[in-house]
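Problem: given the chain below (69 residues), write out its structure.
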Amino acid sequence: TLSQLKIWPQRGRLYQGALKRHSEEGLSSLLAFCGKLDTLIKTSQTPQLYRHFELLILSFCLGKQVILS
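Solution.
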């Protein structure tokens, strides 16, 4: 339940919407991408940081992972 996951009740619909658009595997993949993005931010390794953020947001909104080309 939401309370077990420590999710605020007013945020529940957002999480339910995400679960409808993504599989558990897809969300896990996006979480891994977030980890890579975090590393890039902390080490300043990419000049295209905003492009990576854009891909993350597009992937989340579209319900499928958008790859960097």
